[in-house]
Design a protein that fits this description.
- The protein is α+β, with helices and mostly antiparallel strands and 172 residues long.
- It has two domains: 36 residues, no CATH class; 115 residues, Rieske Iron-sulfur Protein.
- The chain is built from four helices and twelve strands, in the order αααβββββββββββαβ.
- The strands form three sheets. A four-stranded antiparallel sheet has the order 1-2-11-10. A four-stranded antiparallel sheet has the order 3-4-5-12, with no helix packed on it. Strands 6-7-8-9 form a four-stranded antiparallel sheet, with no helix packed on it.
- It is globular and about 55 Å long.
- The relative contact order is 0.12.
Length: 172
Amino acid sequence: MSHDALHDDCETPDDACGLQDRRDFLRLGLMAVGALTALGATPDRLSALERVFATGLLAGDELRYPLPTADGATIDRANDVIIARFNGEAIAFVLECPHRGENVRWQANNNRFFCPKHESTFQPDGARIQGKADRGLDRYAIRREGNELVVTTTQKVRSTDAEAWAAAKVTL
């Protein structure tokens, strides 16, 4: 593309048109920074927003996800959450293996979660099958609101608390 073709819609000399574009960009950028600052944005909050918009929608200590439409698992690495659907239930897990904190992986072909560090395996509901982990995957408190799952990330439930662990799921 020629230099002239880049500025066909510009009614001013080439240099002035380019400066105007840069001025507009800087003006709009500074206005955005000012607006975010006025709203109390900090680098930490902006980083959290970036993670959330890429995955679940954040509301305080809660993340919202669409209801899963098929059995399997969806991993939200940015927020360390697994959403699993199995046998008509939805469950939210902590992404980390309870043994040493390594991120588990969903193995769809084996219908299980797998920890690559010490080869612990877990059923789709998070129950321990075998390996060095001494318990099942930790669950988050979860509830259904309309067509969404709401996960409370400050409420972790260990499988050693059998009653609370069993209750930390949603029937679909």
